[in-house]
Design a protein that fits this description.
Largest sheet: none
Family: Belongs to the ADIPOR family.
Shape: flat
Binding site for Zn(2+): 146, 150
Helix content: over 70%
Subcellular location: Membrane
Number of strands: 0
Radius of gyration: 21 Å
Number of helices: 8
Distance between the termini: 26 Å
Oligomer: single chain
GO cellular component, one term: membrane
Transmembrane segments: 184-204
Structural class: mainly alpha
Length: 223
């Protein structure tokens, strides 16, 4: 019989799947092939979709066994690094610099600010256990803080993608003037990140396996 924790985990997979669906739907309607140099934003978008698949899979299958639980969430957490690689942080500092020193407000800065607000809000719900802290048992299946966290992160990536699209429209001339993106400096970087993540997960999975085997051995010896 499924435990309460297991049911909550499966409900978290529902909020993750909502995130995946919205992200996937956004891609073909906005990143139309008529816009120039779409390999970079397409590459930027794919880690967002991949994040949703990871979260959904982790919450769906994590209760199968202790080993599967460790493996699923190792993959989930490793993918956060891939998400960061696809998102980047340098442009945030560049925009802040322009805004403060030159009073230059880029059109996409509003989207970036909204993105960070959603991110902070998501962190609040992730760490506060609100609302279930004040109403124990009432939000075990719907309205749990971790589900709200998933939806906040969905909005974070959604506003981030809006900002990327706005940057492409605003800086179209600069994009044409520069060198076109190549496979190596776009998909190559993400593939390298995937390979590194794979070996990191493999190493920690082996550590988890040894830990589980040791605990089983200790329990057997005591019996």
């Amino acid at each position: 019989m499924a435990t309460i924790a297991g049911c909550m985990t499966n409900d978290n997979s529902t909020s993750s799947s909502i995130s995946t669906t919205v992200r996937s739907k956004w891609f073909p309607t906005v990143l139309v092939p008529t816009l120039p140099r779409m390999s970079v934003p397409k590459l930027f978008h794919e880690p967002h979709v991949e994040t949703g698949f990871r979260q959904t899979g982790a919450h769906c299958f994590s209760n199968k066994s202790e080993m599967v639980h460790y493996t699923c969430f190792m993959i989930d957490y490793a993918g956060i690094g891939l998400y960061g690689l696809g998102s980047g942080i340098i442009h945030y500092w560049h925009k802040i610099y322009l805004c403060i020193w030159f009073s230059f407000w880029e059109p996409s800065l509003t989207d970036h600010l909204e993105q960070m607000l959603w991110f902070v809000l998501g962190g609040f719900f992730f760490g506060s256990d609100i609302p279930q802290r004040f109403f124990p048992g009432l939000f075990d299946f719907i309205g749990h803080s971790h589900q709200i966290f998933h939806l906040c992160i969905l909005m974070t990536s959604y506003k981030q993608l809006d900002a990327v699209y706005q940057d492409i429209i605003t800086d179209e001339k600069e994009l044409y003037a520069g060198e076109p993106p190549t496979f190596y400096n776009t998909y190559g970087a993400v593939l390298l990140g995937l390979i590194i993540n794979f070996f990191i997960v493999l190493g920690f999975r082996q550590e988890a396996r040894q830990k589980i085997d040791y605990e089983i051995h200790q329990i057997t010896k005591e019996q």
